[in-house]
Structure formats: structure tokens, C-alpha cells
Write a structure and sequence with these properties.
The structure holds 2 protein chains of 2 kinds. By secondary structure, chain A is α+β, with helices and mostly antiparallel strands. Chain A is built from 3 helices and 7 strands; from the N terminus they run βααββββββα. Chain A has a single domain, classed as START domain (Alpha-D-Glucose-1,6-Bisphosphate, Chain A, domain 4, 2-Layer Sandwich), CATH 3.30.530. The longest helix of chain A has 23 residues. Chain B is elongated and about 65 Å long. The chains are: A alpha+beta, B alpha+beta.
């Protein structure tokens, strides 16, 4: 067993100009068509404000009925080269509250453009405590919803 | 259920923080060879001062990546086989996510 890295990095060359790859990220209609781990898992884009400091929220629907929600903020947008956004999964997922950043780099390459996606966890000191507080908050919210219902 | 998840989260954070340092990753590689090593041996191996090594070992122990056993004055350290499981799960999941998304993007862009 070897120690894991704290970052996922995936790269591939696509036979299209950089602008077309950038455009695939630039609207809710476009991302809904591909930004899911498999064709069986559909993405419903709840909000998508594609500009720096704009936010987004995704809802993934798994065939077994499970739903996973993710939200984040666009931190850096440099057409057609670079897109940086935060990625936070919402409760009750096992990885809810983990603060992470996705860096998309689109570079010119022979025959098209290379797309690199780096997804890194941010584990700053105190993050664990903040997450714990986030959990407590989410739990309170859930509890008050339940109370209102009954 | 929620407190369990919060606990898992905290452990995951510790594991990733521990793995964020090159020396500590090298120490884990060394311990991954399987043999228990003493703090002194690790200090000599990495040509580091003992307090530095002790500090790193404490972080790794806190993240449940290594376990310590004390025999007399010697502290022995060994890799915990399940220590990286949770940290690895986050990575595996997100790697699969982006591999899948990239494949779909490729199809969308190149297929049309």
C-alpha cells in the first residue's frame, strides 16, 4: 500500500478548439449534458451563474432514487484557458461539507486542445471544526423542519 | 447518524492534512515496507532531528495512519492497514466522477 495523494488529476486531449471546451462549461444547458459520472446519472442544474464570484448548485439523480447535491462558487474564469470553482457536497452525503477546489485548464495541443481537471481537497487547520459546526447547523435545520411538519 | 458522519469527516480531514506533507508521505512509504520502525531509526533514515520526527509521527498517529507501541524506552511505529481507507474513498470517488464526465464531454464535443 502506498500513501494516497490529496488530489485527483485527469488529463486528455480532445480534437476540438479550446473555445469549444470552455463553452461546454459556460452555460447550464451545456453542463447538464455531460457533467455527470455516467449517462445513467442525470444532472439537474438548480442554479448556474457563470461569472467570477457567481455560484452554482447541482442536483444529481442516481437510478436507485438517491439524490446528491453539490454547490460551489466560480473563483476564476479566464476564457478559454482556465476555470476554477469550489465544490462542496451537501448533507446527508458521507463527504458532505468537504471543501474542495476544481481547476480546469485548457491548453492548445497538436490536433486540438488538452483538458486537465485537478480536484483538490482543502484541509486547512480548523476545517474539521468548521465542518462539524456545519453538520450541527444542518441537523438543527432538519430537526426544525421535522417539528414544523408534525 | 449525523454525529457519526461528522466524526468520519474529522478523521478524513486529519488524514488529508497528515498526507499534505512530503516528509510524512515519505515516512509512510518507509513504514509501508511492513516492518515496525523505531522513532530513532526513522530519524536516522530521514536525517532529521528527533523532535521533528516525533512531531511528524504524532500527526500521523493522530490521523490514525500509524500506530505506536512502546517497549521500554523505545517507541515503535507501524502502518495501520486501514488508515488510508477513508481518505482513499474520497479520491476514488472523485476520480471516477471526472473520468466519467470527461468521457461524456469527449463524446459530446467530438461526436457532433
Amino acid at each position: 500500500m502506498t500513501p494516497a495523494e490529496t488530489r485527483v488529476e485527469i488529463s486528455r486531449v480532445l480534437a476540438v478548439p479550446r473555445e469549444r471546451i470552455f463553452a461546454a462549461f459556460a452555460s447550464a444547458e451545456r453542463v447538464a449534458r455531460w457533467l455527470t459520472p455516467s449517462p445513467e446519472i442525470s444532472l439537474k442544474v438548480l442554479s448556474y451563474d457563470f461569472r467570477e464570484r457567481g455560484t452554482y448548485r447541482f442536483e444529481y439523480h442516481v437510478p436507485d432514487g438517491q439524490v446528491m447535491r453539490v454547490h460551489g462558487m466560480f473563483i476564476e474564469l479566464v476564457p478559454p484557458a482556465r476555470i476554477v470553482f469550489s465544490w462542496i457536497i451537501e448533507p446527508p452525503d458521507e463527504h458532505a461539507g468537504v471543501d474542495s477546489t476544481v481547476r480546469v485548464s485548457i491548453a492548445a495541443a497538436p490536433g486540438g486542445a488538452s483538458l486537465t481537471i485537478e480536484h483538490e481537497r482543502l484541509d486547512r487547520p480548523g476545517a474539521a471544526e468548521r465542518h462539524a459546526a456545519g453538520w450541527a447547523g444542518a441537523f438543527d435545520q432538519l430537526a426544525s423542519q421535522e417539528e414544523n411538519r408534525s | 447518524m449525523y454525529s457519526q458522519m461528522a466524526m468520519l469527516q474529522t478523521e478524513l480531514d486529519r488524514a488529508f492534512r497528515a498526507l499534505g506533507d512530503a516528509t510524512r508521505r515519505a515516512m509512510l512509504h518507509e513504514l509501508a515496507k511492513g516492518k515496525a520502525r523505531s522513532a530513532g531509526e526513522l530519524g536516522r533514515h530521514f536525517r532529521s532531528a528527533q523532535p521533528t520526527i516525533s512531531r511528524h509521527l504524532k500527526v500521523l498517529e493522530g490521523a490514525k495512519l500509524v500506530e505506536r507501541s512502546v517497549a521500554g524506552r523505545v517507541h515503535w511505529f507501524r502502518l495501520r492497514p486501514d488508515g488510508l481507507r477513508d481518505a482513499t474513498r474520497w479520491l476514488t470517488r472523485h476520480r471516477a466522477f471526472w473520468e466519467g464526465a470527461m468521457a461524456q464531454l469527449e463524446q459530446l464535443l467530438e461526436g457532433s
